[in-house]
Amino acid sequence: MITAIIPARGGSKSILKKNIVDVGGHPLISYSIDACKQAKNIDRIIVSTEDEEIAEISKRYGAEVPFIRPSELSQDNSTDVGFLKHFFDNIETDDVALIRPTTPFREPEFMDKVIEKYFTIRNNISGLRTVEEINENPYKVYKLKNNICGGFFVDFEGEKDYTNLPRQIFPKAYIGNGHIDIVKRETVCTGTAFGDKIYAEICEKMIDIDSPFDLKLARLEIQARKI
């Protein structure tokens, strides 16, 4: 069993009050809380926030808010390490499942499997992240000398004329998708969230709400599920 932390600060530039914006009649954060409640291997759900409104809504949907996060750890430039250190300073546990509230459509069964996998390999890794394959391979992107508009292309990873090479020759590339990440106290104490030996669990693509367009997709997904 493991404790889950849902980090939810009040500030958001892309979407006002993003973490509690309405999605299908419920605040966005409620979907992450509900997924944790359904997961058999999560026995405690803690929301880390500096915002009193988020705290009250989180408690209403079944999460704990045993502490209020300091405002200096809730700024636009605040890192994961800051709120994770604060969490471990307040909660006696060696591991925590990091559940980001902007990823609403999780599968509790998958979360359970990842948690079980984590505890079988825990001693050999510094952290765990779920990832999904990205469509646009980074080897196909352009790099400009000195980032100057109208400048010249620069070789990327030693490949000549790499952007014209067939996509199939490049290695697959992945991005963290926030389905469920797992963090170790001992790793956070070194000043990094996941360390340098991160286990990657590949999963299906997820809707991660970072823009008004993503929010529209999430609302459409809710509508489709109700049909």
What percent of residues adopt helix (DSSP H or I)? 25-40%
CATH topology of the largest domain: Spore Coat Polysaccharide Biosynthesis Protein SpsA, Chain A
Q: How many separate domains?
A: 2
Element-by-element helix/strand order? EEEHEHHEHEEEHEH
The low-pLDDT segments are none
**What would you call the shape?**
globular
The CATH class of the largest domain is identified as Alpha Beta
Instruction: Give the number of helices.
Output: 6
C-alpha-based Rg, rounded: 19 Å
* Major beta-sheet overview: 7 strands, mixed
State the oligomer.
Answer: single chain
Could you name the CATH homologous superfamily of the largest domain?
Spore Coat Polysaccharide Biosynthesis Protein SpsA, Chain A
What share of residues are in beta strands?
15-25%
Give an overview in words.
- The structure is a single chain.
- The chain has 227 residues and is α/β, with parallel strands linked by helices.
- It has two domains: 2-132 and 175-226, Spore Coat Polysaccharide Biosynthesis Protein SpsA, Chain A (Alpha-Beta Complex); 135-172, no CATH class.
- It contains six helices and nine strands.
- The strands form two sheets. Strands 1, 4, 5, 6, 7, 8 and 9 form a seven-stranded mixed sheet that branches.
- It is globular, with a radius of gyration of 19 Å.
- The two termini are 35 Å apart.
Question: What would a concise description of this structure say?
Answer:
The chain is of the alpha/beta class. Helix content is 28%, strand content 18%.
